[in-house]
Amino acid sequence: MRAEAGEDQIPPVRKGCRGRGPRIPDGETVTGIVHAHYLIGADGKVSEVKVTGNGTALALKAIQRYIASCTYV
């Protein structure tokens, strides 16, 4: 079941992520705005991460992996 945080819901709070941020490989770049869309399950785990923006494929993949490593309460 999919739902978005509304007036009657409490938005999820990030509990933690692996590392301090995405590990973007040397020579890879990201510029401008990056959009990330993902689902947070009832267990707090992130799934179905999609990242788009002005960046190389490997840089965007690194951001995707980082977001997927996060958990929420």
Describe the structure.
It is a single chain. Strands 1-4 form a two-stranded antiparallel sheet. The longest helix is centred in the last third of the chain and has 12 residues, at 57-68. It has 1 helix and 4 strands; from the N terminus they run E-E-E-H-E. The chain is α+β, with helices and mostly antiparallel strands and 73 residues long.
Write the layout of secondary structure elements.
Elements: E1 14-16, E2 30-40, E3 46-55, H1 57-68, E4 71-72
Antiparallel strand pairs: 1-4, 2-3
- Tally of extended strands? 4
- How do the helices and strands follow one another from N- to C-terminus? EEEHE
Q: Largest sheet at a glance? A: 2 strands, antiparallel
Helix proportion: 10-25%
Widest sheet, order of strands: 1-4
Provide the residue-averaged pLDDT.
90
Which band does the percent of strand residues land in? Answer: 35-45%
End-to-end separation in angstroms reads 18 Å
Give a brief outline of the structure.
A two-stranded antiparallel ribbon has the order 1-4. It has a two-stranded antiparallel sheet with strand order 2-3. It is built from one helix and four strands; from the N terminus they run βββαβ. 16% of the residues lie in helices and 36% in strands.
List its salient traits.
single chain; alpha+beta; two-stranded antiparallel sheet; 16% helix; elongated
